Structures
1.
Amino acid sequence: MTEQLVSQQEAARMAGCSKDTIVRARRNGRFPNARLRDHRWTIPTDDLLAAGMYRPADQDASAPSAAVDAGRPTVPIAVELARALARVAALEDLVARQDDQLVFLRQLTVETLAKRGAD
């Protein structure tokens, strides 16, 4: 069985999001197996699944994603886990960026106070 590759536009349709969201996710490393072919990015559907962005084609769009049948979610546990891990990774990235900004602002404050003290 060969790995299915889809365009960024098709990945966005499958994930139920915009192409810009897919591009940002690719640039942030959420699709480690994405490939540039003929000047176009292709994304393996396995990467979409692992990133928690894949929406099965047979899922009814009008049905709520958290539909319950006999007390069990209709979404496979592996998909839910992948989505949760993707959310955790995104939040970790956000915290890291905010930490970097905080370090920068602290340094800027120290430099500003030092200049004022020297004057």
2.
Amino acid sequence: MKASTIPLIILCLFMGFTFWVMAGAEQSLLAFGVQLMSSPDTAQVVIDLYILAGLACVWMYQDAKSRGKGLGYLVPFFILTAVFVSAGPLLYLVLRGGREPETEASKM
């Protein structure tokens, strides 16, 4: 399998499940988030997820920078990460593939 195949499968399954759940939800995504933050035990899980999301954004930034991509390239991934947490990094991995950054020798 190519390096981007597994993240693609996970992304499709996760987003499919997310959209299925949201289609049948009785409240908006924002209302759900507020409800989660209203209790300390669920707020701890949400905070933990967003710490991990922040670390993923730092990794995406450093990886994209090493590949010669600018901050403008990353904005959609950061927004997706802010809303769906793991969807942003998964999409980044899908589009990144298994390619390593170009070295100076290969550019010549």
3.
Amino acid sequence: MPQTVMIVDDALFIRTVLRNMLEDCGYHTIAEAGSALEAQRFLHTTTPDLIFLDIILPDANGIEILDDIRCSLPATKVIICSSISQEQTIQKALQHGAAAYLQKPFTQETVAAVLRQMEAS
């Protein structure tokens, strides 16, 4: 059974590219959000297996949303997907419960590698 995914990123282009890559890997995108508020609305009605979450959103910091997700959906794995490459930010995301950190710009191969990592854990 394919795993379900929610993508949270303020850039429509990123959401579209990532959705296509995920579908090529056999995943089903059940929700896309361009803001924290939109993501929270979806999380009241859906329970994705994976969430790809950007750190920089127009209305919140992705780490804050990560904390909320970890409390409300502890079984859902969250992959931070961001252009921020500072080691301190990456470590903070992992300490707050991110299952992985995917650096933008990403490729089909890097997305597939993160997905394999999630399947193995």
